[in-house]
Amino acid sequence: MTSRCSLLSCLAASCILLLQTGCQQQGKLSEEPSSAPTELTEPLRKSPAPAPNKLSPRITFEKLEHDFGEVSPNSMNTGQIKFTNTGQALLKITEVGRCCGVVAKLDKGKTEYAPGESGAVNIEWRSGSQPSVFKRQLVVHSNDMISPKTYLAIQAKIVRRVTWEPNRLRLFLDKENAGCPKVTITSIDDQPFSITGFKSTGDYVTAGYDPSVKLTKHVIEPKVNAEKLRTNLKGQININTTHPEGSTITILFDVVPEYKVTPPVIIVFNAEPGKTMARKIVLVNNYGRDFEIESVSSKDNTVAIEVLKKTRVSNGYHLEVGVTVPAAAGKAKFTGEFSINLAGGEKLPVKCHVYYPRTAPKSETR
Questions:
Q1: What is the pLDDT of residues 149-170, one digit of tens each?
Q2: Is the predicted pLDDT of residue 366 greater than 70, yes or no?
């Protein structure tokens, strides 16, 4: 029995020694530098992109920029950029990207081109009414493996061939003929032209002209209906001419109002229904005339309004008004309106934007 136990003890000791030797040897191997790269010792490298097939298509444009040069305002402009399939396979154009204010299409709607075949991108756009520099970029998508997207740039300089003075009219209610000056229209390329039309907003401004007269410079004397101007303080005048690059002239006009209300809109945040909130308003006469304030009143009685204080100043008043807003009725905001009523019957409107405070939902108690 004793000899058997001794034999078993020797076997166990031998196994332990073998295990220790193996572990030590493995430790030495792991400490030695490895000649072969591993994922831990060398970062992964991206595989190179496959080279295009020798029989692949290739789109080649004769130019990547198209300059229209100088163009006239409000004119339609067209151009073309040609290309050729210089590859050895069928070229397919999948899309010509859209661009703001520019229409670009493939010539004859053709989308596929054999090797050596040529095509074109047709461009069309209308210039704006004001002098400026026009720049846009188009993108052509194709099955060209090297250049699947080709960017085309277009540009132009918008210049006037016809000029006019003044460019904008400022009219006054207290001046003869609203203080409207004469309008001078000049051809800068010395090409004679005729005036064929004169039309204004609401026919507030009119003018006489002779369409049979051709000149390089025309002077027009507008006639203003001041009473009509009171109903609309802004508008425009359109003048038509026979000049090929200045057929329509647009002149904006605005009228100095008799009264100015500051602020024109009262904003009430975190409004408390039923509580009167004070707000200040400055009211002046732009033409230096004295006037009297009779009252203030609410339109449709949506907002309760009252004058808390009124102080006369040069050409006007400083007002302090009390605003009382209605109940929210489940709404976050609403817009009301009241008017300042002057002696003589004129009413000056003032809008009122009311915002109610947000209420957090009540938590349920269990």
A1: 999 999 999 998 999 999 999 9
A2: no
What confidence score (pLDDT) does residue 48 get? Answer: 47
Domains 162-256 and 259-355 share a fold: yes
Q: Could you identify the residue written with the tokens 């929210």?
A: 328
Q: Which residue has the tokens 């007269």?
A: 213
pLDDT at 364: 46
Which of the four pLDDT bands, split at 50, 70 and 90, describes residue 359? low
The domain ranges of the chain are 59-158, 162-256, 259-355
Give the CATH architecture of domain 59-158.
Sandwich (2.60)
Q: Are 296 and 339 in contact (CB under 8 A)?
A: yes
Out of 1.20.1250.20, 2.60.40.10, 2.30.30.100, 3.10.129.10, the CATH code matching 259-355 is 2.60.40.10
Mean pLDDT score, 258-275: 91
Task: State CA 15 to chain mean position distance.
Answer: 83
- What does 57-122 look like in DSSP terms, one character per residue? --EEES-SEEEEEEE-TT-EEEEEEEEEE-SSS-EEEEEE--BTTEEEEEGGG--EE-TT-EEEEE
Architecture in CATH for domain 162-256:
Sandwich (2.60)
**Which residue in 236, 211, 208, 201 sits closest to 222, CA to CA?**
208
250 pLDDT above the threshold of 70 = yes
Residue 232 burial (C-beta neighbours within 10 Å; 0-12, 13-18, 19+): exposed
| Count of Cβ atoms closer than 10 Å to residue 52 Cβ | 14
